[in-house]
Amino acid sequence: MDRNGSFSAETRDAATDAQSAPVTIIVCSSCRDENGSDAHPRAGTLLAEATRAAARHSQITEIRTVECLGNCKRRLSAALLRDGCWSYVFGDLTTDSGSDLVTGAELFATSQDGLIPWRGRPDSLKRGLVARIPPLAILKDQT
After folding, report:
1. In angstroms, rounded to a whole number, what is the distance separating the alpha carbons of residues 121 and 127?
2. Burial call 60-88: b when 16+ CB within 10 Å, e when fewer
3. I need a labelling partner for 35 at 20 to 30 A (CA). Which of 26, 28, 109, 111 fits?
4. How does pLDDT run across 32-84, given as a tens digit for each residue?
5. Per-domain residue ranges for the chain?
6. 98-109 vs 43-55: helix crossing angle, rounded to 10
7. What's the pTM?
């Protein structure tokens, strides 16, 4: 992998193999809104519903929820995963960010290098990036 986080020639094969793998969107269903409200349904559940609605006319079919992504200081959170590629965690989302998550997932699904391209990424996914986690296959022990 180079300094920009792109795959090197030796790891590009893993990205190519994963190229046809679907992208999964994971939304934290227990996230509260910006006011910290305990109202039900929780803001995270509303974001998950908005994401499913936005995905109805897309090729993104895997939208899952999890009870907590542990990103509470950044409020509404979600992750994008693709086998053999980097995983992304986003925060500071709103209940209206479902279409942004689907757009990001579509960009990720067509990525040739296993990364979500910066160009075309919705602003909420640019500003809200919390972490980018490498796939285990590209990690090497350093001695």
Report:
1. 10
2. beebebbeebebeeebbbbbbbbbbbbbb
3. 26
4. 888 888 889 999 999 999 999 999 999 999 999 999 999 999 989 999 999 98
5. 9-135
6. 50
7. 0.83
**SS3 label, residue 74:** helix
Which amino acid makes up residue 120?
G
> Please, what is the end-to-end C-alpha distance for the chain in angstroms?
18
d(CA 101, CA 78): 8
For residue 130, give both structure tokens.
């919390």
Strands 87-90 and 129-133, bridge-based pairing: antiparallel
